[in-house]
Specification:
The complex is a heterodimer of chains A (about 110) and B (about 110). Chain A is mainly β. Helices cover about 0% and strands about 55% of the residues of chain A. Chain B has about 110 residues and is mainly beta. In chain B, about 0% of the residues lie in helices and about 55% in strands. Chain B contains no helices and 11 strands. In chain B, the strands form 2 sheets. In chain B, strands 2, 4, 5, 9, 10 and 11 form a 6-stranded mixed beta sheet that branches. A 5-stranded antiparallel beta sheet of chain B has the order 1-3-8-7-6, with no helix packed on it. The chains are: A mainly beta (about 110), B mainly beta (about 110). Chains A and B meet through strand 5, strand 9 and strand 10 of A and strand 4, strand 5, strand 9 and strand 10 of B.
Chain lengths: ~110, ~110
């Protein structure tokens, strides 16, 4: 059974650009969550999608957005990149209901220069 | 607001020692507690999930216990090996029922030969 797949693994972008990250969940999982991990702040929750709808949202500016497709794959977009957006972005999937063990992808390392 | 604290923040031990990592949380009305392992620059690997109705879970050399009333969990690692070197994070589900986990900052473990 394939795990959670994130692409790309590494990205270097310039301030002001935008970026799109992709996450393919484990087959059968309907919930996809996104997290930002930095040395200073640790793991911070961005948002969660379930059945193509944003179900929960963390405290991040509107520059951070996402969507989920009918096959449960999810994308995260960050517009007008800032230096402080440099981080490891992780996505996790789970069944979305009941006891929901979360499974994480390997992450996308974003560097903004 | 749920807060998760992990003690110690870092630990360095010789191979073969038995270890105890601690996790405490402020709101005892949780659904699940999950322990993860993270290798440098990588995603999170799920180790153990303890449902709120359970007291402990075991997997190989790992044993995790949960005491909801006191807001604490411990991860016990028996006969530690250099391959156990990683950061260990615990996460508890949002007590509001959204299943969004709150993470601790982790315990960075080094097991030296």
């Amino acid at each position: 059974k394939a795990g959670v797949t994130q692409t790309p693994r590494y990205l270097i972008k310039t301030r002001g650009q935008q970026v799109t990250l992709s996450c393919s969940p484990i087959s059968g999982h309907r919930s996809v969550s996104w997290y930002q991990q930095t040395p200073g702040q640790g793991l911070q929750f961005l948002f969660e999608y379930f059945s193509e709808t944003q179900r929960n949202k963390g405290n991040f500016p509107g520059r951070f957005s996402g969507r989920q497709f009918s096959n449960s794959r999810s994308e995260m977009n960050v517009s007008t990149l800032e230096l402080g957006d440099s981080a490891l972005y992780l996505c996790a999937s789970n069944m979305g209901q009941g006891v929901a063990e979360a499974f994480f992808g390997q992450g996308t390392r974003l560097t903004v220069v | 607001k749920q807060e998760v604290t992990q003690i110690p923040a870092a630990l360095s031990v010789p191979e073969g020692e038995n270890l105890v990592l601690n996790c405490s949380f402020t709101d005892s009305a949780i659904y699940n507690l999950q322990w993860f392992r993270q290798d440098p620059g990588k995603g999170l690997t799920s180790l153990l999930l303890i449902q709120s109705s359970q007291r402990e879970q075991t997997s190989g050399r790992l044993n995790a216990s949960l005491d909801k009333s006191s807001g604490r969990s411990t991860l016990y690692i028996a006969a530690s090996q250099p391959g156990d070197s990683a950061t260990y994070l615990c996460a508890v589900d949002d007590p509001g029922g959204s299943y969004i986990p709150t993470f601790g900052r982790g315990t960075s473990l080094i097991v030296h030969p």
